[in-house]
Amino acid sequence: MRVSAHSSRATSALKVEHADAVLIGAGIASATLAMLLRELEPAWHIVVLERLEGPALESSHAWNNAGTGHSALCELNYTPMDTHGRVSIDKALEINKKFQLSRAWWAHLVENGTLEHPERFIRTVAHMSLVHGEENRRFLKARFAALHPHPLFSSLEYTEDPSCLAEWAPLVMEGRTANTPLSATRSLAGTDVDFGALTRALLEAATKAGTSVHFGSNVVDLRRMGKDWGVMAHTHDSTHVIRAPFVFVGAGGAALPLLQRSGISEIRGYGGFPISGQWLRCTNPELAARHDAKVYGKAAVGSPPMSVPHLDTRVINGTRELMFGPYAGWSPKFLKSGSMTDLFRSIRASNALPMASVAPGNLDLIAYLASQLTQSFDDRLAALAEYLPGAKAEDWELLEAGQRVQVIAPLSRTRGTLQFGTELLTSADGSMSGLLGASPGASTATSIMLDLLSRAFPAKASEWEPRLRAIFSTEGDARDHLARTSRILGLTEPPR
After folding, report:
1. Average pLDDT of span 122-139
2. Can you give the pLDDT at residue 180?
3. Is the peptide bond before 326 cis (omega within 30 degrees of 0)?
4. Prior bond to 440 cis, omega within 30?
5. Among its keywords, does the record have Oxidoreductase (predicted)?
């Protein structure tokens, strides 16, 4: 049975469908998994359920995420410095390698004709890091020295020269005084990814290959039905149940309450803390045309990673955009289209104490959120002026960004820890997996889904391994792999 948002639906009886896998949510995670399973098991009946009337309308929507193609080329929070001035690059290497897996997967799909017109979702855009002052200069120089020798970061350049900075990012230097020393790194191997366009392309390809996608289908219950899971969903005029031996919950902020409803023991103790955001969007096309880079700064003390300031060239649905932010906000909703009761309904006896325990250790985050919530438009414009000295109010408008639910993971029955990354949970029998958390989930979705395959389908490992190795081979020079995927995806090849 195939159901779409426009299909006629019977209302008199509960409809039951059988599938090999059910994926909840039509964002980048489910779209990636759908195509991986289609590649490995072309005969499987795969069903995607989405509450909204189309794909990629929440966190995967281009205006709801950073869209950098997270590869740690410019994101300074992935390279912390210790008290001795040593910069750790482990996280940056991990993130970059995971993004290379995403590039390899997209290149494979382009090469075999499954994905067409890669320019619609990925483009070359320079990635820059820009810092102010001598202390930050020492950090950025140490970061550059630690990263540049690695093949994945050999494209990085460093400068303190104002004339060089004016060449890299003219608007950033225009009208700037020389009072504060500026330092920057740049990589010409950076990308801009429209994850909304990519998600739509992946699901379109999956549908052509036989995947059933149900829009306007709100999952309300997950229950064991023998060896299967029963996934109950409401549409505007009917209720249907899909039985399947495997379920993936990739529903963004809705993943936590759905996993709680499933009753799997692995979700016990987990909670979530919602954080929203806003962007300043440039409404002056002439101004947007003069900036061609993603310029990232350092996050304020206590701020979450999603709030790292950046002046960002984007191409969204084929239109060149310039944006700055994000500015943090707060709402108890778990989704942008969610309910004001989401946070309160997620509290359980098992997670109440772990959730409460994180507050004393995150007072700086609470203070940061409070300061952001009280900002005026002029305050936000002043923050933009640090990166764009000539910023004028009439050239910018404020837009709502996406809603994120940061993971509160249990350390014990009474203590928890607030996490800013993503976390994949899988039941002991492998029959259910769910993805919690936020950044950099979109950019690393391929790596996360490969991890899911190994956890959820261990019996298939030997059968699938040759196919996966052929797609994701890591043998040879990292720069050669980067150059190859650049050629296939139509990107500018990085300098050697």
Report:
1. 95
2. 81
3. yes
4. yes
5. yes
Domain encompassing residue 58: 15-459
Angle at CA of residue 475, ends 469 and 477, nearest 5°: 145
Q: Is residue 256 part of a domain?
A: yes
Nearest-angstrom CA–CA distance, 342 and 353: 18
Between CA 423 and CA 430, with CA 428 as vertex, the angle to 5 degrees is: 80
Name which of 438, 423, 58 is nearest 270 in CA terms: 423
- Token pair recorded at residue 453: 């395959």
Of 340, 348, 351, 336, residue with least CA distance to 408? 351
Flag whether pLDDT at 11 surpasses 90.
no
How many CB atoms sit inside 10 A of residue 231's CB?
A: 28
Cβ contacts of residue 204 below 8 Å, gap of 6+?
A: none
User: Is 78 inside a domain boundary?
Assistant: yes
Q: Specify the long-range contacts of residues 361-365, CB closer than 8 Å, at least 24 apart.
A: 361/418, 362/302, 362/418, 363/302, 364/301, 364/302, 365/302, 365/303, 365/304, 365/418
306 pLDDT band (50/70/90 cuts)? low
Across the chain, how many H-helices and E-strands are there?
15, 22
Residue 215, domain CATH: 3.50.50.60
Q: How far apart are CA 256 and CA 251, in angstroms?
A: 9
Q: Using an 8 Å Cβ cutoff, are 22 and 229 in contact?
A: yes
